[in-house]
Design brief:
Phosphorylase Kinase, domain 1, five-stranded antiparallel β-sheet, alpha+beta, Putative MAP kinase family protein, 11 strands, Transferase(Phosphotransferase), domain 1, 2 domains, two-stranded antiparallel ribbon
Length: 331
């Protein structure tokens, strides 16, 4: 199996699951850093208030613009990190896409032509779905999960229409607002497909949420679809929200790379709780089809009966209620 032969080339992986991140080797830098405007923004323009998390290639801070007092998220990259220019390019391309986090400003490096030093991003007050689950201390019900799935799919539909693949969809990269709005974030592992059949490197992103064809393209891809891997990742996320823990391994098991590869490529699909609806079970099964060519598309999933509730606003309100509850628990 090709993936086994390549195993020795991969770095040692340790807990937590969010840190099972595999990256591309350094890529050639663009001739100039992208910019959203002619602004001379500098890191000193922003006051860092607290650490929100660690994304692909950088650390994300809750910050405040010193002059305007605007709250925002500030993602600061390591010097020369290739993912900085890639993420800035994707966010500018997706500036009008629904359910994608907004880019306010690209903060250039001191050296001309280098990758951006930081990105000033929209602040989502509810934090990530990973943080929401942790603060709640219990699984989510189907109604708020449907709100997450619908909005994430609308975001993916817009991104895929722009030929953008995310390649690292997971609970910590789905952000939620106080009103229950969900947005996709962290495009450091993303890629703009220049051609329809552009290859997507298998070992980029977080291993725990990778699809089978990204572990072993020869065995699982069939008719190649570079967007199908994002659907698999969303299916894992949706099932995790329902179970309250990472679903592809027994709860509490300390995963390593081999355990994840075996579970994803060879393991049986995990069972949703006994109380789960038939619509939910089928939705997850359509996402977690191991053969990429059999997996449901984003368009098909948006028409799935699990998302057919006429009161989409009510489902989003149910998610907003969970955000408010989690905030109270955290006080």
């Amino acid at each position: 199996m090709a993936v086994v032969r390549q195993r020795r080339q991969l770095p040692h992986l340790t807990l937590p699951l969010d840190h099972f991140v595999l990256r591309l080797p350094p890529q050639p830098q663009p001739t100039a850093a992208p910019s959203t405007s002619t602004s001379d923004a500098r890191l000193s323009d922003y006051e860092r208030l607290s650490v929100l998390g660690h994304g692909n290639g950088g650390t994300v801070y809750k910050a405040r613009h010193r002059r305007s007092s605007q709250p925002l998220a500030l993602k600061i990259f390591a010097d020369g990190d290739a993912s900085a220019a890639r993420e800035a390019e994707i966010l500018m391309l997706a500036a009008d896409a629904p359910h994608v986090v907004r880019l306010h400003t690209v903060i250039p490096s001191a050296a001309a032509g280098e990758a951006p030093a930081a990105l000033a991003l929209e602040l989502m007050p509810g934090g990530s779905l990973a943080g929401l689950l942790r603060r709640l201390g219990r699984p989510m019900g189907e109604r708020p999960i449907a709100a997450v799935a619908r909005q994430a799919l609308l975001g993916l539909a817009a991104l895929h229409a722009l030929r953008v693949v995310h390649r690292d969809l997971k609970p910590s990269n789905l952000l939620v607002g106080a009103d229950g709005e969900v947005k996709i974030a962290d495009f450091g592992a993303g890629k703009v497909l220049r051609r329809r059949l552009d290859p997507c490197a298998s070992y980029v992103g977080t291993a725990a949420y990778m699809s089978p064809e990204r572990f072993d393209p020869e065995a699982y891809s069939g008719d190649y679809d570079p967007y199908a891997a994002d659907v698999w990742s969303l299916g894992v996320v949706i099932l995790e929200l329902c179970l309250g823990h990472f679903p592809l391994l027994p709860e509490g098991q300390r995963p390593d790379w081999a355990a994840l590869m075996c579970a994803i490529c060879f393991g049986e699909a995990p069972e949703p709780p006994a109380a789960a609806s038939d619509e939910f079970r089928d939705f997850v099964a359509r996402c977690l089809e191991k053969k990429a060519w059999r997996r449901a598309s984003v368009t098909e999933l948006l028409e799935h009966p699990f998302l057919a509730e006429p009161d989409a606003a009510g489902a989003q309100h149910a998610l907003a209620a969970l955000v408010a509850e989690a905030e109270q628990r955290g006080q």
